[in-house]
Amino acid sequence: MKIYFNRKHLFKEIDYPNRYCKKNLFKTVSVIFGVILGFLILLKPFEVSTSQQKVNYIIICCFHALLPAIILYFYFTALNHLRAKDSENESWSLIWEYAHIGILLLSTGICNFLIRDLIYLNPNNWTWRYLWEEVRNCFVAGILLYFFMRQAIFYFDSKKDSSLIFQFTPLPPQLENNTTNTLIHIKTQVRQDDFSLDLNDLLFAKAEGNYINITTCNNNRLNIELKRISLTQFESQLLPNRNFFRCHRTFLINMHYIKNVTGNSQGYMLSFDHTVDQVPVSRSQLIAFNALYQELLPPPKHLA
């Protein structure tokens, strides 16, 4: 029987999980400590002879629950610091998450092996057999607990409000009625790559490493061009114009060309005319997106 494996799902770019962000990290490690401690005390998944225990079993469970919590806290604190320093390379996907979880489980297994002399009276503590046993146990229990907690997070998220935060109606194409010149010159790091862009034509731009894909529409004809400039540099040259918004780490949009918005408090998906491509609004940008949309809405017409 052929097994279907969706590789694209693993590599698809997603928002950096809130649970690993600095403001939520202590809460995350506290939950992990509590779950692991309860798991070890209630289920006793790994048999150990009581004659080999130097300390009470509850204390041993506390050691084994505290270690992964401490490792995770300092690991993601360092990772968050590195991500903040390199703002142009903050991509995240499921494959990245699984890789980091694998590193954490391996580190926890090695640390559990190193503290065996503190909690177990066994002359064979410092053997390859027990190193393998500790690492194996961490991966078996860690993977089960990780996916259990992911399912719990998914369940509680699904219980949240699933409706749009506001009622969306497309903004009028105000730029088209602007009598000022909307053709601007975009400067890149290499002068020969400089280019001109009509702001009336821009739908959205997508980051591709140190390049961007610019999607424009002129006379109902869609055009996509690759330009050698980072999205941050491109955005900085559009700053005076409030019609453009960085809705995601890799996307910048023209607010006046959005035709439909779907989603909920976890994030939006934006649709445009003349293209089937959709643009995400990250969870962290929802408030700013909503505020700018309300600001750009034309004032209601009053009946005479």
Automatic annotation (TrEMBL):
Pfam families in the record = LytTR
Q: Name one GO molecular function term.
A: phosphorelay response regulator activity
The membrane-spanning stretches of this chain are 25-43, 55-75, 95-115, 135-156
Enumerate the UniProt keywords alphabetically. DNA-binding, Membrane, Transmembrane, Transmembrane helix
Q: Where is the HTH LytTR-type domain?
A: 186-295
Q: Would I find Transmembrane helix among this entry's keywords?
A: yes
Q: What is the protein's name according to its record?
A: LytTR family transcriptional regulator
Provide the species name: Pedobacter alluvionis
